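Aim 2, interim progress: modelling of the alpha-D-glucopyranose-bound target.
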Amino acid sequence: MFTEVTQREYLGAKGRENIWQAKEDANLLLSGALLGGEIIRVRLLRGNEVTQVLHALQDNSASLLRYQLADGGPGTLPYHSWIVARGDEEWTGSLSQVQALSTIEPYLQGFAFSDSSLRLKRPLASEERVYGLGERTGSMNKRGQAFPIWNIDPHKGHNPKTENMYTSIPFYLGLSNAEGTAYGVLIDHTGRTEMDIGKTDRTSVQMTIEGDNLVVYFLVGPKPRDVMRQYTELTGHMPLPPRWAIGHHQSRWSYASQQQVEQVASQMRARHHPCDGIWLDIDYMDGYRNFTWNREAFPEPETMTRDLHQQGLHLVTIVDPGTKIDEHYFVYQQGMEQDYFCRFVNGAISVGNVWPGACVFPDYSRSEVREWWGDLYKIMLDQGVDAFWNDMNEPALTDMMVLENPTPADTPGLDDQTKLSPPIKSNTMADDVLHLGDGDRPTGPDGGPTLHKFFHNAYGMEMARSTYEGLLRLHPGQRPFVLTRSGTAGVQRYAAIWTGDNTSHWSHIPMAITMCLNIAMSGVSFVGIDIGGFWDSSNGELLVRYAQVGALLPFCRNHNAIGNVDQEPWAFGEPFESAYRTAIETRYHLMPYLYTLFEQAARSGAPIIRPLYFHYARDEQACEVEDAFLVGERLLSAPVYEQGATSRRVYLPAGTWIDFWNGNEYPGEGWSDIEAPLGNWPLLIRGNSILPTGPAMQYVDQYPTDPLTFTCYMTTDGEASYTLYEDDGSTLAYQSGTFAETTISCSVTPDVTTVEIDEHFNAYRPQRETYVVIVKVGSKTLMKSVKAGQGKIVIRL
Ligand code: GLC
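Predicted structure of the complex, ligand included:
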């Protein structure tokens, strides 16, 4: 039974916090703060903290407790959070206390409590749509659905009804199509949050958590772009990955030997399939022990990585959290000696089965554990491995392929203190495992001890963080690249994510689009899928259509489960191999455009791939589109997802749209049938935009981007401008201004076409001799090459 807090008494302010007492229960407080004028935080709290707050309010000399940010950054918060990346002190605002109060007031409505839980109910207008919420199947608009925010490894072959997946994010964006406005709501909670988005009651969203501290952030928008900016200012920005990470990758569960890796690499090059990375799945290890090699299959990892590097390829290896219980295994030994593995409240070490059989799990809530684990990557980095893939970190437990299953409680040599629990039978860690955090220093960056049920969704993110921070320490000044399967709000600070184990089935192509778009609209810009499908065997046509979606997703990797037929780009012969190559070559041509979008995402939080509503929120039909996406503002990709189809219907929003492949023009604000023979798919550029492209390459840094081509897709009497971002693609120097920006503008009148290029090379000078400028107006194409590096160039055509 929930009681709503309908009556409040204002008790006063302490710093930024305004405190109200609930009339329904004197032991319940609402605390509201305004952060920077666009974000409102409201907390419903009870229990121990209430006494402390009341005391601070009465005693002028006492202050509210402040908790160090989890990232150890300069700021603090009035509670502990794994999610928020910006301290209260970092926000500035010019509103008076009276104005702040009236801004906060409307957000105090809808809070309710029961004995064990707290709830917030927010109204939904009749035509409102709801997006975000991380990685989920089902329709992109989540209105009418209910599900828990709780990371799990779902059963094989997820489908639209699957309730939850590997990465859930307690954030939604509400979109009002009538007004074209949007707002955001973030629940700062890493335990289970029950979301009911207009399912039980069509007119409201209900969010329920267990416990005594419900923290909610309201982001005022008013445009989707503003919501994403506010959300990423709060939860952190994606750092720029190394440029090669944006290339095409080839993975398999598992390339089983050094020889096989060499073969895949040489096929890629011999057959001219652009590729930047080869990925090794669990079988490179010695009995699935992290940070080891199966030396029979991979006798010389250093030689292998050196050879790959010489071909412009990088090597990425998988690392799971499950640590094999094996007294002779150094990671297990070190972790046991230092007491780094998760324990139950009763002291027993939590054991679960993963690939190696019985495993223990590092407690990533502790800084010293994250540091230890992060430093272990040195072994692999020294062998030339370039980046890491963190998997099974929900954490997922599985009995699949378990090699051996000792009864760990009987393992000899362990005293009562270190006793291992019997292996857990559930699919994840038990609720009553205790994550220690900062232990007796609860206001420190890791907070006080937390039960797994409250830490759960942060487990994967903190593992990715441990990897990311380790790589930063081990290779200072270089950009780390980490892929994680599990995460929650804020995971974009450390890693890219992919949508896990999809299926080689046509229905998984549209699902890839809705999933990736909602993930992108949950702050995680760097997202992708298993191209070709993971479970079951793919076929030539399906692989090609998968590659055409993946070619313009931010993360682009072909991956396939064990036991299926191969699905490397050449696996099904012609015409599929050529069609696959075309899709990926298109990505490489568009790399300057994609990379600029990555930088924008890193700076402003604007996602790289965007749902149509992002730019056309007032267009009702555009809001309904769930099977196409924008790449930045100017490119619209409408992948084909029906077997045998050679065209598809595409909704085009306002403007004129130009076919990337053949220059055909289509009118906006309507549906068009667009040709899609196997070799391409509907890809359209909005009229009056400029697209930068580079030369064909086998890997992103094979050559300088020279010539750089700017194609201006114009309408008569049109104007367009575009700013390209470039930097060294690998170091952190961009953070201190070492980058180049090149602005090009184009104007077309009946008499003259003028193009201006303006170079701003701030400490970074792109290696380039030539710009090729192409202006397309209707059926006319004008073209000119000019010398680069002149500062300002004016061309009349
Ligand atoms: C999980 C991952 C998958 C990987 C497999 C073996 O299912 O999601 O990508 O291939 O484990 O490591």
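DSSP finds 14 helices and 46 strands in the chain. The mean pLDDT is 95.
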